[in-house]
Amino acid sequence: MTTIDGNAERRLILITMGDACGIGPEIIAKAFAQGDAQGCVVVGHVGVLRRAVRCIGSSAAVAKIDTLADAWALPPRVMPVLEPERLAADLHELPIGRVDARAGRVAAVCIEHAVALTHAGEGAAIVTAPIHKEALHAAGIAFPGHTEMLQSLAAERGGAPPVRMMLCSAELRTVLVTIHVSLRQAIEQITFDNVLATIRIAAAAASRWGMAQPRIAVAGLNPHAGEGGLFGDEEIRYIAPAIAAARGEGIDASGPYAPDTVFMRARHAAGHPGEFDIVIAMTHDHGLIPIKYLGFEQGVNVTLGLPFVRTSPDHGTAFEIAGTGRADPRSLTAAIRMARELSARQFAARGPLSGAKTP
Amino acid sequence: MTTIDGNAERRLILITMGDACGIGPEIIAKAFAQGDAQGCVVVGHVGVLRRAVRCIGSSAAVAKIDTLADAWALPPRVMPVLEPERLAADLHELPIGRVDARAGRVAAVCIEHAVALTHAGEGAAIVTAPIHKEALHAAGIAFPGHTEMLQSLAAERGGAPPVRMMLCSAELRTVLVTIHVSLRQAIEQITFDNVLATIRIAAAAASRWGMAQPRIAVAGLNPHAGEGGLFGDEEIRYIAPAIAAARGEGIDASGPYAPDTVFMRARHAAGHPGEFDIVIAMTHDHGLIPIKYLGFEQGVNVTLGLPFVRTSPDHGTAFEIAGTGRADPRSLTAAIRMARELSARQFAARGPLSGAKTP
Fold it and tell me: Which of A300, B91, B102, B114 measures 20 to 30 Å from B255, CA to CA?
């Protein structure tokens, strides 16, 4: 067993190219140019990625590889690209900064290919560059985001796992009970089962990463966590019983806490040791507002519950600046570091996933 | 006209004592002991405040005054206390750290007295120390918080103003469309009228403070501000039309913006000039999570729409540490500074409020 780039295993991290018309290819090119993507292979279109390298003013090489193993033979800072079959040759002529069905289709093909490789034990983790929902939609693909698409791909393979979105900043980890639905629907989705499943998924993921007994804070849904039932009863009916059930299973969960102070209490910063390791947030924005407040640069999205590690940057395709070379790669490089760390920890804690091949 | 402590007018700031069993009296005592409460008079119970001075280990004097004007004759750091009639003599024997109907009643009497004085032009502003809703309730007073109580007191005097809660940190100002209701009810309260009224109140308040054309960002309610109607339609039906109406009135309002990024964009910090001056948040926690995230120390609550300036610290009675002398007075002193600044700006911009007497 060789240690490569902090991995305890000789498996590569797969970066999916994302929407060819957005900033994904550019930030990938920057990550390679900066030396932040060692041990990674891009699943994408060679022409699009070469255009991105030119766009950032780099002269780095992009090398088309036929199998993942070929990547190990390449010199540092060369970007290895594995191109799925069926891709059109002229994708690098797609207009930048616009919704395009062709870009939506190729983004989806790359994700499917990366998932297939990872399921076959060929990838240590997947890092996804941003996709655009409207482009996916134009291509006839109805998922509102990566999380839902990855869940569905896992389900096709018989996994059918309940998955949850975790967001990490340099200071905070939060796992969301509900994500891409209206606030009205989110309230309907706050049930005993959903809250308990989220707590369990968070605890299981943390345990896979070697964090045996994470301190899990569960936020309420309503102001002041319902103030004893005065401002809503979801805390009394669903959230508190789910916390009690989780505690009954030996999970160190507590709450429900007032949403407006629990993130501050969990915050890990210099001179401010956080009280909790993970916060369970009931809604998308309760969880994302504190993650994003100090800036996108360190934000990483991690999908919990999948049979492989998947991370992504905490931003979208940013069509408005795509093609200018100005996009900031820091959230992507943070996502790569996180993928490397989580897959290494997972490997160390439990050994390779079933089906994983190590040379 | 004499300038006192940054005021352009010779009027005092009234600090209401808050719940006698909470940390209110202690943090007031600390503010005076530190010299941070010059130009302030406490509306409260002398015995309770003397107990608080002893609790923080201070030997500073507490002076009962008969009229506000008496305060000017006192030396610095002496705490002038104006005691409303009808208070029981033995309130300083109330147990610390517990819900008590007597504490609820006296807290309400002090607020009523301060409002009456301010309406009579005797106070420049009111700063309220924390009250406890259950104690109020035990005393037969049904308001969920100061904001609702102050609105009702103003209405009794024929003002009947729509009021809104503004929260300020060192980096951010946010005004809430909905406050102390369940999230379900909050969604029902997101109407064209409520959103437009909130934008107008924020713009009018800023104008009274000398900020002629504030940049007002309006957050959405749903994830991604509804993503074009995919995740809820309140943005399309109510919020966007209210923004358009406000713009038609010459207000620089924009949005609806995704709730998870608008606060980050508005944040004013070193090297990060905020894009907006005020953010309108649809729910209590969308607005309060980013205000509180970096800590309570600088958080100030300002009630907009009242005929006088009212501020308060951004925390509650903290029964769990009341009586220990450990309570942090920084949010209160920030509230005092804010009251001083806003009343001075308001005075400079428009002259004294109608009915105000200046010596």
Answer: A300
A276, A314: one domain: no
Q: Please give the span between the terminal C-alpha atoms of chain B, in angstroms, as a whole number.
A: 8
Q: From B234, which residue of chain A is nearest by alpha-carbon distance?
A: A182
Is B264 in the A-facing interface, judged by CB distances under 8 Å?
A: yes
Residues A185 and A275 in one domain: yes
Residue with tokens 């949010």: B331
**A357 assigned to some structural domain:** no
Please tell me if residue B188 touches chain A, with a CB cutoff of 8 Å.
no
CB spacing of B183 vs A290 below 8 angstroms:
no
Mean pLDDT of A258-281: 95
- With beta carbons under 8 A apart, name residues in chain B contacting A275: none
Q: Are residues A146 and A181 in the same domain?
A: no
Contact B183 A187 (CB under 8 A): yes
Distance in angstroms (rounded) separating the CA atoms of residues A313 and A296: 9
In this structure, are B149 and B7 located in the same domain? yes
Contact B264 A292 (CB under 8 A): yes
Using CB atoms within 10 A of its CB, is residue A90 exposed (0-12), middle (13-18) or buried (19+)? Answer: exposed
By Cβ distance, the residue of B184, B272, B294 closest to A187 is B184
Chain B nearest-CA residue for A268: B294
Query: Nearest C-alpha of chain B: how many angstroms from A152?
Result: 20
Same domain, B126 and B219: no
Is pLDDT above 90 for B160?
no
pLDDT at B9: 55
Residue B64 tokens, joined:
């009962």
A101-119 and A146-156 are packed helices; what angle lies between their axes, rounded to 10 degrees? 50
List chain B residues with CB under 8 Å of A183.
183, 187, 221-223, 232, 234
Cβ-contact B265, B279 below 8 angstroms: no
**Which residues 92-151 in chain B show a CB within 8 A of chain A?**
133, 144
Q: What is the mean pLDDT of residues A63-83?
A: 93
Q: Is A185 on the interface with B (CB under 8 A)?
A: yes
B179, B187, B290 member nearest A184 (Cβ) = B187
Q: What is the pLDDT at residue A357?
A: 36
pLDDT given at position B355? 36
Please say whether the beta carbons of A186 and A204 come within 8 A.
Answer: no
Contacting B residues, span 283-342, partner chain A, CB-CB under 8 Å: 283-286, 288-296
Residues of A in contact with B275 (CB under 8 A): none
Residue corresponding to tokens 């994470």: A214
Q: Looking at the structure, do residues A131 and A177 belong to the same domain, yes or no?
A: no
| B290 with A293: Cβ contact below 8 A | yes
**What residues make up the domain containing B189?**
164-304
Count of structural domains, chain B: 2
Q: Does residue B333 fall inside a structural domain? A: no
CATH code for position A132 = 3.40.718.10
Residue B115 confidence (pLDDT): 94
Do A3 and A118 reside in the same domain of the chain? Answer: yes
Within a domain: A349: no
Spatial CA neighbour of A40 closest among A353, A279, A332? A332
- Would the pLDDT of B239 be above 60? yes
Report the predicted TM-score, pTM, of the whole model to 2 decimal places. 0.89
Is residue A337 within 8 Å of A238, Cβ to Cβ? no
B271 in a structural domain: yes
Q: What distance in Å separates the CA atoms of residue B70 and residue B48, rounded to the nearest whole number?
A: 20
Q: Give me the mean pLDDT over the B301-321 stretch.
A: 93
Are A2 and A145 found together in one domain?
yes
Radius of gyration of chain B (CA): 20
